[in-house]
Design brief:
single chain, mainly alpha
Length: 277
């Protein structure tokens, strides 16, 4: 039995027996999410929680001052940042900013994969955010929230992490990167769904992590998963990119695909990307 089949078999067996080790949500993200769900929390209390992690505080201030929030007056403190972002949004934004902590490894080979995967994910996120903002500007529809969209796109590849962690134990697998891609392609949806349930994320995130690669899974209304797919198509990370864009156009998300080549779109995408740089 080849190492490749062995790894796939091990992974499938662990998924079926619930013994696959899933990543845990970064501690600071967990604290922020718990605090956000506390009915008695106020902006100062939330700022204190965010302030426990200096790097998260700095990024929160950066995002508050980013072109993405489109404000001229600069904020300088965590409290101002939390106030500007808003209590409801802080939960998802803080989680999104903490996600990078998961894409790390002590193994040099795996580390390269993780770094590439994080950068690929940020590409999906930036394109998805820009696609959604472009759609909102064109239609005036504001029923979907940008912070939910951002986090939905960030968890799109989360199911690949346990595959890489498991592969770490089978060094020879890395000699064949194509195989790893196949394992990720085949299994990361199922694993991603499990991670989202384990983290007690709501249905929106479960669906995006579990089903974005499967175009048969679709909602009649325009939803977050549509923008995650567009993000993946625009960053050349979907096998069926052309089909995704055709379906999105039929749904009325855009009228002409050329819009995604426009200088305006590129600027929004680059601003979104800068948040995670």
């Amino acid at each position: 039995m080849s190492t490749q089949n062995a790894l796939l078999t091990i992974l499938v067996e662990k998924i079926n027996n619930d013994t696959l080790v899933l990543p845990t949500l970064p501690a600071i993200a967990l604290k922020v999410r718990r605090s956000a769900d506390d009915p008695n929390i106020n902006l100062n209390g939330m700022a204190d929680v965010v302030g426990l992690d200096p790097s998260l505080s700095a990024r929160m201030i950066k995002i508050s001052n980013s072109a993405y929030l489109g404000r001229a007056v600069k904020v300088t403190s965590t409290t101002q940042a939390v106030t500007r972002i808003g209590l409801n949004q802080v939960k998802n934004i803080a989680t999104a900013l903490a996600m990078e902590q998961l894409f790390v490894s002590k193994n040099e080979t795996v580390k390269k994969y993780m770094t590439k995967m994080w950068n690929d994910t940020v590409d999906i996120v930036a394109n998805a955010m820009a696609a959604m903002l472009t759609y909102q500007a064109a239609t005036g529809k504001k029923n979907l929230s940008l912070d939910t969209m951002t986090l939905s796109a960030l968890v799109a590849n989360i199911g690949a992490l346990p595959v890489l962690t498991e592969a770490e134990r089978h060094d020879s697998v890395f000699a064949n990167p194509t195989f790893l891609d196949v394992a990720i392609q085949k299994l990361s949806g199922r694993i991603g769904g499990s991670i989202m349930r384990e983290w007690q994320f709501n249905e929106v995130f479960i669906q995006c992590a579990e089903h974005w690669r499967n175009l048969e899974f679709t909602e009649s209304s325009i939803d977050y998963i549509d923008f995650v797919r567009i993000g993946a198509a625009l960053s050349n990370q979907a096998d069926n990119g052309d089909e995704i864009l055709t379906l999105a156009q039929e749904k009325g998300i855009f009228t002409d695909v050329e819009i995604y080549q426009s200088p305006e779109f590129t600027e929004i995408r680059d601003n979104a990307k800068a948040i995670f740089a």
